[in-house]
Design brief:
Length: 443
């Protein structure tokens, strides 16, 4: 159903409900006014009631000849009807018996404990209200018809203007969505509006920006992966083509070099797959309680040969012998290995790297956290590079030749592993003085 049709039906229903409301108010107002008129002139009503009851007793507990009687207190009333045993025995005034029975004020007549009949009466004040009620009921159908005709005309104009104004942002939003479907990253939405349409437009624009950013990231990833694969593949291809053309066997040194390139390709593929699974939330964790101090000693043992090659002093310090954390050992070791190997690479020969573990209580957290600090006195990270060091394939040292190091995914994988354990990484660095990586894990 179109918006214009819905608006028209809504306005029509509102008019009908308004008329019914006015009808109900008029009906209720009549009975309220009737009862108030009784309270204002209650003595006259009671006097008339007593006069009829006295007539009944004076005639031997009978209403015989009541129709011919004259009652002293009947003057203030515009209409009087006496009903007894289902019959109308007395009637006086301008109104019919049925009208009085339906809209008159009822007085119950009694003689002792016996109910002897009912009086339906209406004084002048009540009669005026009753006449207004009849007049209103008489003209109400005409008012209703005129209102509906007026509403129909006014609704058509109003609905046309409202629907045009209401559907205008919808048309713009649809046009923007169509532009997105066609690949237009600069789709325009009516964000300047302060209503729900503006909120929808803003949400769609943010979604479009996210999609565009994801597409740029995808293209950049493809470009980076292709670039990383290109060099080792060219080396392998060149060596094999040369060996094939000359017929000379590959020397052990050449075989070792080719094996290094194959291993580099294998590491790149595994790192890309790991990072993709972590970012997509597809890496299922199986945490167990581990001693963080032992984990640091394990990762130090695995990287010590790298530190010794550069004569770097590597040490582990812990405030407690046992700092329990619930983690998947292989994932945390991978994260710590990537951070530590990165520190070793960027620390000059003869430098030092210090690993420190402790339990900390953070003011904005309820539970305690384990904090691992990896401190080095290496080259440091420029301030402009700090926000990007956890991006895929990003290197703070732009002069670093790609074949000489890792895949450029180490810190990105480390961060995703830590986040998967409900933790986070903080970095402080100063060029020429070194860096401090802080890893927080829930206890």
């Amino acid at each position: 159903m179109k918006i214009r049709t819905k608006l028209f039906l809504t306005m029509s229903v509102m008019i009908v409900l308004l008329l019914l409301f006015l009808l109900g108010v008029t009906h209720a107002q009549f009975y309220i006014s009737r009862d108030f008129a009784y309270l204002e002139d209650k003595a006259a009503f009671e006097s008339l009631k007593k006069e009829f009851e006295q007539f009944y007793r004076d005639h031997g507990n009978s209403w015989e000849h009541v129709g011919d009687a004259r009652f002293e207190y009947s003057a203030p009333f515009a209409g009087i009807v006496l009903s007894a045993d289902g019959n109308f025995l007395y009637q006086q005034g301008k109104l019919s018996a049925d009208e009085l029975r339906n809209d008159g004020y009822k007085l119950v007549l009694a003689s002792g404990d016996k109910r002897i009949g009912r009086l339906y009466v209406m004084n002048d004040s009540q009669f005026k209200t009753y006449e207004f009620k009849k007049m209103w009921y008489g003209i109400l159908p005409n008012i209703g018809i005129a209102s509906l005709l007026f509403t129909f005309v006014a609704a058509l104009l109003t609905i046309f203007l409202l629907s045009w104004r209401l559907t205008s942002p919808i048309r713009k939003i649809i046009a923007g969505i169509e532009a997105i479907k066609k690949g237009d990253a600069a789709a325009i939405f009516p964000e300047q509006r302060k209503d729900e349409f503006g909120a929808i437009a803003k949400a769609l624009r943010e979604m479009n920006d996210s999609l565009a950013a994801a597409e740029r990231t995808r293209k950049q990833l493809m470009s980076d992966v292709a670039h990383e694969l290109k060099t080792p593949l060219m080396i392998i291809q060149g060596e094999l083509e040369l060996a094939h053309e000359t017929g000379a066997p590959l020397s052990p040194a050449k075989q070792a070099s080719l094996l290094d390139e194959v291993l580099r390709l294998s590491r790149l593929v595994h790192d890309v797959l790991d990072l993709s699974r972590l970012e997509a939330g597809m890496m299922e964790l199986h945490p167990r309680t581990e001693n963080l101090v032992v984990l640091l000693e394990d990762v130090t043992a695995k990287t010590r040969f790298m530190a010794e090659d550069k004569h770097i002093q590597l040490s582990v310090h812990a405030e407690e012998e046992n700092i329990p954390v619930s983690v998947e050992k292989s994932r945390i070791l991978q994260a710590l290995y990537n951070i530590l190997s990165n520190a070793i690479y960027y620390t000059n020969p003869g430098g030092q790297i210090r690993l420190h573990a402790e339990t900390v209580h953070l003011p904005d957290r309820q539970q305690p956290y384990a904090c691992i600090r990896v401190e080095d006195n290496g080259v440091g990270i420029p301030e402009a590079d700090l926000p990007h060091i956890f991006n895929r394939f990003y290197r703070a040292d732009h002069s670093r030749a790609r074949p000489s190091g890792g895949t450029g995914l180490g810190l990105a994988i480390a961060q995703q592993n830590i986040v998967a354990h409900q933790g986070w990484i903080e970095v402080e660095s100063e060029v020429g003085r070194g860096s401090v990586f802080k890893v927080y894990l829930p206890m």
